[in-house]
Write a structure and sequence with these properties.
Helix Hairpins; about 120 residues; mainly alpha
């Protein structure tokens, strides 16, 4: 088995585990961990393709850093929301977070696709 195929299988495995974790959990922290695993799996695939197709071009490394930055920001914002939710309500279970659901913005309410 070539190293590219092995790296792609690892990335696909990480993505699959993350997808299962994000869809099957009700705890905010576990959902965020699943999303991070999905992004990590996509990042492993990105690095594998960069390494085995164009290792002399450094734009692949720059793109990896660009992808890792939103991953870190997403975790920071998500944990801030989780901490605020825990302090206010004492729980981070998503089933109990119906009070976070707000009304649609005005420009979405006037759209025909939301009128169904």
């Amino acid at each position: 088995m070539s190293p590219l195929v092995l790296a792609l299988l690892v990335g696909a495995g990480l993505f699959g585990i993350g997808l299962y974790g994000a869809l099957s959990q009700t705890n905010l922290v576990m959902i965020m961990m699943g999303i991070e695993l999905m992004l990590g799996g996509a990042l492993v695939n990105l690095v594998a393709f960069w390494r085995y197709l164009h290792p002399d071009v450094y734009s692949g490394q720059v793109f990896v850093v660009v992808v890792m930055t939103p991953m870190a920001v997403e975790m920071a914002v998500g944990f801030a929301v989780g901490i605020a939710r825990f302090r206010a309500r004492g729980s981070v279970e998503m089933e109990e977070a119906v009070d976070l659901k707000g009304s649609l913005p005005a420009f979405w309410q006037s759209s025909a696709r939301w009128q169904r």
